[in-house]
Design goal:
The complex is a heterodimer of chains A (95) and B (485). By secondary structure, chain A is mainly alpha-helical. Chain A is built from 3 helices and 2 strands. Classes of the chains: A mainly alpha (95), B alpha/beta (485).
Chain lengths: 95, 485
């Protein structure tokens, strides 16, 4: 299997990471060598195996639906790169 | 006392309780040594001034009932510390100051310990050599230009170099045990669900665990006892009865059955590692325990499985870094452009590589072939351990397939870097506890470690085995202070 530049560009769109030609080629090389290594899994027949979805074999605990963090608006906004009053500011999205 | 930093945690606690040392004496000593050790690059952020204030306050009103009375401690910079910058070794969090405290560090401060600073690590804990940190690589106290291992490389370097009496790291695929092995110290990766993940910068949520790193097994047990707790803030935290691990520590392991898995004898493994393993087997027998040959047939599939599961979870976890709510933001022509530039400029190469792998294996058309397949193999790997534990109480393996390597030696070949974790990764996939203890040196004089893997929630047992073996091994770390002047 080979991951081509077109696939790299597609994944980078999905991952929201900008990638120029040079970086795309480097990533394609790296990913191909990593996936060559991963392909080893195809040696195993797993048709009737249940996938492991949770390592902790316990059911999630229920708790009452209470508000525990009150008035933390300031804390939430504190680390934002850009804010205005109580809002996060992002580049304009509506013309 | 000029040799304060050479003392173990247990000795320091005793000396503070007996008033032979004050918290200020101890804190000062570790600060002094940390300041002389800048060359190691073990710290990202220090908090020395307020550490001294806290030590003085402790001495004015000491509470000797606490488990870590006035003990200074630096921690991996993956733990959120309230009002102290927390970077995860990344440019994208370079300006992030948490407004809350991780549960694990809160447990430590509640027992009287004092924060010295935040320790360097691979970016988002993705790495095996501490070379992916935005803040530069960490030097090993063992030798110049040697990697301390990773991702908890700053933590390992700081404990081995005596910049902190003990520390905590995190382990997703070996990030506590591999650097512990490389630097001649003890590192425990607890059972999944033993230590809360609340407030730890997430990498791969089904694998991540915090754990102690220390000069010896007893210190490791004491710190584990402090950090392990049930926490409702982490939905995967498990409510089980925790031991007083340090109090219940015993070197009596007579009659224990220890499994030796043949699949850990991998191609190309240096003879030194095989010899070390054989020595370990002899020590086990000398302690009155029994060794039994076992098979973990799917071991060789663990690393490929890990490199699907971990990047998949990481790509999802790291989606939150979008330049909007916190962290670094790059300028963009529009919203999407801003996201893409922020992530391209804010994340380093290894993190981007893993996000790309994870995005690919989760993308439409590939999910079944990769992610679902990996989940199934993960089940097989867990079944191997379940089967083995019908016959044995614990398993003994080497910690790593080689000793530490030079800085820059493996950075151009991701797969050869990943192979470092070949013996540690299966333990995370199965959610089990594992401990690495220093067990010898290679021909270059670099430390080598042995790993003891336990049943889930059986930390006491592997700590006991490690404690008994430690006594027989009588390991002495060769620290020459090469970096000081």
């Amino acid at each position: 299997m080979s991951i081509d530049l077109k696939t790299i560009k597609h994944i980078s769109k999905l991952a929201r990471i900008s990638v120029d030609e040079q970086k795309a080629e480097k990533l394609a090389g790296d990913l191909n060598s990593i996936f060559d290594f991963i392909e080893k899994l195809n040696e195993l027949k797993t048709d009737n195996i249940e996938p492991l979805t949770s390592i902790a074999e316990t059911t999630l605990k229920l708790r009452s639906d209470e508000v525990k963090s009150k008035n933390i608006r300031e804390q939430i906004i504190k680390n934002s790169p850009q804010d205005n009053e109580d809002y996060f500011v992002v580049p304009k999205v509506i013309e | 006392m000029s040799d304060i930093t050479k003392q173990s945690l247990t000795e320091l606690v005793e000396n503070i309780e007996n008033k032979k040392l004050s918290s200020t004496d101890v804190t000062k000593a570790f600060i002094d040594r940390s300041e002389k050790s800048e060359k190691l690059n073990a710290y990202i952020t220090n908090d020395f001034t307020s550490a001294l204030d806290k030590a003085k306050k402790f001495d004015q009103k000491p509470n000797f009932d606490l488990k870590l009375p006035g003990i200074p401690m630096a921690v991996k910079d993956l733990f959120c510390t309230k009002n102290i910058k927390t970077t995860a070794g990344s440019k994208i969090l370079n300006n992030f100051i948490p407004t809350y405290e991780s549960t694990v560090t809160e447990n430590i401060w509640n027992e009287g310990a004092i924060l010295l600073g935040k320790l360097n690590c691979d970016e988002f804990a993705m790495g095996s050599s501490n070379e992916t940190s935005f803040f530069g690589n960490v030097q090993s106290p063992i030798d110049k230009n040697l990697v301390p291992g990773g991702s908890s490389g700053g933590s390992a370097s700081a404990v081995a170099g005596q910049l902190t009496p003990v520390t905590i790291g995190t382990d997703t695929g070996g990030s506590i045990r591999q650097p512990a092995s490389f630097t001649g110290i003890v590192g425990l990766k607890p059972t999944y669900g033993s230590c809360s993940r609340y407030g730890i910068v997430a990498f791969a949520s089904s694998l991540d665990q915090a754990g102690p790193m220390a000069q010896n097994v007893k210190d490791c047990a004491l710190l584990h006892e402090v950090i392990s707790s049930y926490d409702p803030k982490d939905s995967t935290s498990i409510d089980f009865k925790r031991n007083h691990y340090s109090k219940e520590l015993t070197n009596n392991i007579k009659g224990k059955k220890i499994g030796i898995p043949k699949e850990y004898r991998v191609d190309g493994m240096p003879k030194e590692i095989e010899d070390l393993w054989q020595k370990g087997i002899q020590y086990i027998k000398d302690c009155g325990a029994e060794t039994i040959d076992i098979s973990l047939p799917n071991t060789s599939y663990a690393l490929p499985t890990y490199y699907i599961v971990a990047p998949a979870e990481a790509s999802s976890n790291l989606a939150r870094y979008d330049g909007v709510k916190y962290g670094f933001r790059a300028k963009g022509e529009n919203l999407i452009d801003m996201y893409e530039r922020t992530r391209s400029e804010g994340f380093g190469a290894e993190v981007q590589r893993r996000i790309m792998i994870g995005t690919y294996v989760l993308s439409s058309g590939y999910y079944d072939a990769y992610y679902l397949k990996a989940q199934k193999v993960r089940k097989l790997i867990k079944n191997d351990f379940d089967e083995a534990y019908k016959k044995v109480d614990a398993i003994l393996t080497p910690s790593t397939p080689s000793s530490a390597f030079k800085i820059g030696e493996k950075t151009n070949d991701p797969v050869s870097m990943y192979l470092n974790d070949i013996f540690t990764v299966p333990v995370n996939l199965a959610g089990l506890p594992g401990i690495s203890i220093p067990a010898g040196h290679d021909s270059k004089g670099y430390p080598l470690g042995l790993q003891i893997i336990g049943k889930a929630f059986d930390e006491q047992n592997i700590l006991n085995i490690a404690y008994a073996m430690e006594e027989k091994i009588n390991f002495k770390n060769k620290i020459t202070d090469w970096w000081i002047k």
